[in-house]
Write a structure and sequence with these properties.
Elements: E1 2-4, E2 8-12, H1 18-24, H2 28-33, H3 42-60, E3 64-69, E4 72-80, E5 89-94, H4 103-118, E6 123-128, H5 133-141, E7 145-146, E8 150-151, E9 157-164
Helix pairs in contact: 1-3
Length: 166
């Protein structure tokens, strides 16, 4: 899969993206809002790409994708299959130096359009921590509506959002 926006190319993750994933998944904002995924070296990053992203794309037809700006990876945006949600979940994250420039809005719009128009998905969920006000604002600007909070399998309470195909 490859999507193009005015500024970004959104593409499938590849093994060569391991250094980028290692950097992204160890940023302060990732750890604070998403959590420590135990990606602490190059081998861990490769394993994550293979076992989570490539496998998800093969099994579900969707996954998190790498957002690139001038061919350089700057973030991720895509759909995640969570066992406790009926519909795919929109996920996104950026390297801190790229926040505040509308990249998530741009990538999210492209990913949602592809999901609804090309993949036949009728509804997309999104979850975020109650403290992550920036993600909440992004979801609202993408047209998501906030639902009741839910508990994840690890007993964490998160905010649940949904967007339906129009």
């Amino acid at each position: 899969m490859e999507l193009h926006t005015d500024r970004l190319v959104i593409r499938n993750a590849e093994i060569i993206d391991a250094p980028f994933f290692l950097k992204l998944m160890n940023t302060e904002t990732w750890i604070e809002h998403i959590g420590d995924r135990s990606i602490h070296d190059h081998k861990d990053a490769i394993n994550y790409i293979e076992s989570s992203l490539i496998t998800s794309h093969q099994q579900n037809g969707f996954a998190l994708h790498v957002m690139t700006l001038n061919k350089a990876p700057i973030g991720i945006c895509g759909l995640i299959k969570r066992d406790y949600l009926e519909y795919p979940d929109l996920g996104f994250a950026l390297l801190p130096e790229y926040t505040g420039n509308g990249f998530i809005q741009e990538a999210g719009t492209a990913v949602l359009h592809s999901a609804f128009e090309k993949s036949g998905i009728s509804k997309v969920f999104a979850i975020t921590s109650q403290e992550n006000h920036r993600s909440q604002a992004t979801l609202m600007s993408l047209g998501f509506e906030e639902l009741n909070p839910i508990k994840t399998p690890d007993n964490q309470e998160v905010l649940l959002f949904e967007k339906q195909k129009k």
